[in-house]
Amino acid sequence: MTEPLSINAPLLLAGLSSGLLNYLLHSSLLLGGAWLIERSARLRPRQASHREALWRLAFFGPVLTAGLATLLSWSPAPTAGPLASPTATSTAIERPALPEPSDAPTATATPPMREPAPMTGAERPTRQAPAAPRAWLQLPPEASAAVAALAAAWALLAGLGLLATGLAWWRLRVQARRLPRLDDDADLHGCLQTLARSAGLPTPPLRLGRAEWPSPLIAPGGAICLPAWALQLPPAQREAVLAHELAHLRRRDPAWRLAAQLLNQLAWLQPLNRLALRRLDALAEQACDAWATARPSDAAREQARRALAESLYRCAQELQQAAHPVRRLQLLSRMAASGRSPLLARIDALMNPAPNPHGDPTMNPKPEPYTALPARELWRKRVLVGGLTLCALALPLLGVGHSQPLDLSRLRDLGHSFEARFGVGSAMGTRIVKNSPSHNLDIRLSGQMRFNEDQTALESLSQGRLLIDERREGWHRRAEFLPGEAGQAPRLVYSLDGKEQTPDAEGQAWLCDRVALAGETIEGSEKRVRSLLAQGGVARVLADIQAPNIEDHRRRGRAQALLQQGPQSESTLQALIRVHEGMDSDFERRQLLQSMIEKQTLSPALQAQLLQSLQHMSSDFERRQVLEALSATLSSEPATLQAWLQAVDGMDSDFEKRSAIVDIVDRQSPTSGLPTLAAALQASLGLSSDFEHRSALEAVAQKLPRQAALDTQAEAALRAYSESARRIDSDFERRMALSALLDAGVHQKAALLGVLDAARSIDSDFERAELLSALAAHLPADAELLARYRQAARGLSEHERGKVEAALDPVMDRLAMAAPAAPATPAQAAPAASAAPAAAISRLKPPSPPRPPAAPSLP
């Protein structure tokens, strides 16, 4: 007879959490080991294919090792064998059905436990096994409950991520099938057929990509989708693009990438997976570039590399111009340049094919000959690789599990929590719950009720009840308010530690506080604050707000109610700021400060005090919310701006810091906001992310003055902008930040001089040439600017310098037209006549041997 299948939820959740912990442990060890091996000069494989295999093993291997570790550490629950002896004994635990919750306390009788009789050898079961996973690394029960909650959240988010990835893949497949084919272009189709034969592949379909796809990609099904700009490339560049995409099909990269994305969505808790994906992408792109540029001769190989580099540069331009790149399609498709692919490094490797200690020699046309390692080095390398291999094989023996079967009831005691659930209409169906290991509070409200003025007593109750149940270490209080008879006051049933009695003085104080909690939750704190104002004014309300042992949300609610009563004095607002500093919850702090900013007019000194109090707020998000609320009315006084600068510098997140800077900059005007812009520029120096730094400077550039006449403040702001841009490490981001100044119309001489000074610090010839070429369009006919321009162009390669000089030709023409030639005097003619023989001699000198053309220094 087949037994019905039963699922034990605690054991299932315990196994799921154990598997998650095992995966995190194994993947961290394997991915970290792969990173160390690749970084080590003695262990790093010389061939890029071996490094790719290493990263694939480290990325996909933990799924297998963690699954084996979980299975090896799991033992099923014992079951009765079919050949059990009739005299064999067994012990079972029966769990009666849970009774329905009742308001009245009930006593439950516990049946006495019977000691089992000693078993003889024949009566002992032949096999016993625990009913929960066992492991070498065991978690305590408290940590087990937390990990179980994490595993449940992980499973939910992983399922959503897998669903989103599947829908995006299906959407891309449908869109690709509807794209028009490119069979009419005979040259393009013939080139594709030739390349497919050389790759040993059938000719894939060729389609015209959508307008919002700025890069070539391989759609699900193997179709190559080319954007419109790729069809306008020269034949050599089009061949390079097709060869690169065919190399991806030849290597089956679309299938590998889809599998990697699915695993990444499933294991989203592992941050090292992002590193593995980036390395796998980089190695795949380099391998495809090497195959696409493989030629029998050096000259043909050089031409193929240059053609592919130029097509990649064109792709980079299209990606920059795309307003909203489809990120989900980038993740699923195998593009020539995706957001995670080192596009700039690929261009540089193609144009400068030289091996480096940390790069890949796959792009080197003439790799260095293989040299055998010394015997001692070879022996050491074999021992290390063998040891790492044994460690990887032994990973399934390393498991993480729970010290005892998981108790789901511990999930409610993971930490303090306060929850209020409101019903529809009045106070019907409201429940307030607060749980912690040492404190349990449960308040249930139903029916129509009215509280007194200070909300410390219940005046009327109809068709419902108010139940308050609280447990602390040492006592248990319970109070139940029931409707009174014939319109009378509600009837109270009070008990202490299970014994009904009349509340004493301590019980009365407890009742007043808990009834006030229920009243403020239902009605808000305005009623209580108005009553206290009538009794003793603002001082009475402040004393009530600062009362000890009240929750942060009640303290915040009372303070907000006071702020809504009208303008408050400076001392009252200072007292509320001190109240904010004493709170534990950053969320409640932010709510209080935002209400103060919105409801009151804050003086510069008070704004500075408020900003200084933000040092007690640990959440960068909540701090940024306060800064954005204050930015509309922020004073430009030096003390206030200094306090704002300290508040921004105290944030750890570059994203939150940049968002606060951009928000305050957007609210300024080019004429009256220079002090604030100067503070924003100073705050930008604290951004460690080059992207966030550049984004902040782009916002500042839109607010800098554009008039020709500049005062001292404006010139200082322009110098601060150039100095901040100079601090950016990335040449690309630095060039974009300086170009933003030119694009914003800031073309004064001081601004251009600052750009030229910052341009000299750009190491990349390509980025510096691009910036100087853009600057030449705004360069006036000024001798000093021209001299500084040529100084900034020194050291460029001949190719890049030629582009810079060509961009400068219109400026030189304007300078020549502005200064017409005057008739030469005899004194001026003599030097010219003496210079003629020298010029003739220089023309007679044999020309210097031509330098080989340098590859352009691309980004």
**Which residues sit in consecutive blocks of at least 5 with pLDDT less than 50?**
1-8, 75-136, 323-341, 356-371, 402-427, 826-859
Major sheet strand order: 6-7-8-9-10-11-12
The count of β-strands is 12
Strand composition percent: 5-15%
- Largest sheet: number of strands, sense, barrel closure: 7 strands, antiparallel
Give the count of helical stretches: 30
Average residue pLDDT: 76
Percentage of helical residues?
40-55%
Oligomer class: single chain
Computed structural class: alpha+beta
Present the secondary structure layout.
Layout: H1 9-39, H2 48-72, E1 137-139, H3 141-177, H4 186-199, E2 206-208, E3 217-218, E4 224-226, H5 228-231, H6 235-251, H7 253-266, H8 272-292, H9 298-321, H10 327-332, H11 343-351, H12 375-393, E5 400-402, E6 418-421, E7 430-436, E8 439-451, E9 458-472, E10 475-482, E11 491-496, E12 499-500, H13 505-523, H14 526-545, H15 552-563, H16 570-581, H17 586-599, H18 604-613, H19 620-631, H20 638-649, H21 654-666, H22 674-684, H23 690-701, H24 712-726, H25 731-743, H26 749-759, H27 765-776, H28 783-793, H29 798-818, H30 826-844
Parallel strand pairs: 1-5, 2-4
Antiparallel strand pairs: 3-4, 6-7, 7-8, 8-9, 9-10, 10-11, 11-12
Helix pairs in contact: 1-2, 1-3, 2-8, 3-7, 4-6, 6-8, 6-9, 7-8, 9-11, 14-15, 15-17, 16-17, 16-18, 17-19, 18-20, 19-21, 20-22, 21-22, 21-23, 22-23, 22-24, 23-25, 24-26, 25-26, 25-27, 26-27, 26-28, 27-29
